[in-house]
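Running log. JK asked me to keep both predictions on one page so they can be read side by side. First protein, sequence followed by its tokens:
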Amino acid sequence: MKIVYHSITFLFFLLFPFLALAHDVSSADQEILRAGGLLAYVRVGATHMLTGYDHLLFLAGVVFYLNSFKDILKFITIFTIGHCITLIGATYLGVTANEHIVDAVIALSVLYKGFENLGGFEKLKITSPNLLAMVALFGLIHGFGLSTRLQSFDMGENQFLAKILCFNLGVEVGQVLALIPIIFIIKYSRKSKHFSAFYKAVNWYLVIAGIGLFFYQMKGYFMGH
């Protein structure tokens, strides 16, 4: 039980940074981009993924459901392709939406994954949607969320596409760095006889976090109008 407790505690602090800091488009980031060139976009992209608690919670939920490294690679690849399409495409074309609404939908994706992992559809006697298709769909939505972040910056007109691609590269680097400890924790925890309790606890956490983040974003949306 001690292993499970420490794993949950570590996962909590890993995946749920302070809300005030996560995803923040700060003046410091803007200054880094202004002074640092293309590599700065890689750095900021990685930082935004590593502090993107909603993205990481969803990825943790996806990985938790899978047993083999082959399946993990397949699903993460599909998710990555999805968010690359909307991150690059929406930013390049200047397509945007209210960031609170986009983040509210992303919060629902976290809720959805926890609910599915807990067998929610089976308990309701409903056939769950195709998991690979849903991961691809949520990848597109998550990428649109990242695009809204990137478009919050003053990117200028020079090397516009290169800046987008570098930010996207940074996101991928950040995603890999975040997934390494997540996969390690899950793999380590599977060896424990208490894994079933750990699995339920973390996925209930995803459900609760998804609900909380949804209302947090909707509050931000209505207060801004």
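And the second, directly underneath as requested:
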Amino acid sequence: MEQVRAYVLISGRVQGVNFRAYTRDRARQGGVTGWVRNLNDGRVEAVFEGTRPAVQKLVSWCYSGPTHAQVEKVEVRWEDPTGKEGTFSIQW
């Protein structure tokens, strides 16, 4: 199955609402590799790599996020997969 990679920036009230933990859990459940982290400007940054359906499902979820998040904007850049991402993790 085709492998894809998405670089994603999520803006809004997305820090302090467990966005990273929920993203990690959903990614692992869907077999997606990569990472997620908070940025100093209040956004959340993530890289998702896996099958197209699994990555698209995770990207779609980012538009709503966890219950207490208030997502205002999601920017997605599709890239060539590297195959170098390990188990999905939260970066600090």
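Observation for JK regarding the second prediction: The chain has one domain: 3-82.
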